[in-house]
User: Which sequence fits this backbone?
């Protein structure tokens, strides 16, 4: 049987600087997984993709092992290229964040950038 991984509840729901998530290997063997962090800005000066991959971490867990992963969110993860302004910009507003093993990750939180 292949290893199975569970993406559990976020360790905290205040990811203005960091987003942390607990992961566990619930399978019978040691295995590798890649955790992906996607964001979406609900409103801003321009339309943004529904889910943008901004961070990822590959990790190995032994059978039954549990670990907390930390993702850093800064300007590099929140900015986008504005064709109108011809520069990288960060708009304040409400963001959705998803963390999981792929782009369909269900583990969700929100944060507001002021």
Assistant:
């Amino acid at each position: 049987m292949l290893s199975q991984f569970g993406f559990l509840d976020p360790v905290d729901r205040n990811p203005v600087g960091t987003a942390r998530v607990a992961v566990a290997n619930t399978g019978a063997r040691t295995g590798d997984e890649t955790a992906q962090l996607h964001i979406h800005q609900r409103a801003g000066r321009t339309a943004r993709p529904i889910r943008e991959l901004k961070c990822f971490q590959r990790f190995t867990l032994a059978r039954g092992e549990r670990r907390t992963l930390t993702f850093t969110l800064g300007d590099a993860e929140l900015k986008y290229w504005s064709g109108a302004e011809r520069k990288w910009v960060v708009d304040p507003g409400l963001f959705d964040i998803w963390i999981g093993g792929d782009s369909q990750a269900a583990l969700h939180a929100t944060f507001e950038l002021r």
Remarks:
- The beta strands are 5-10, 18-25, 31-41, 52-61, 66-72, 80-82, 87-89, 93-100, 107-113.
- Helices lie at 75-78.
- Residues 11-15 have pLDDT under 50 and may be disordered.
- Residues 32 and 59 are 6 Å apart (CA to CA).
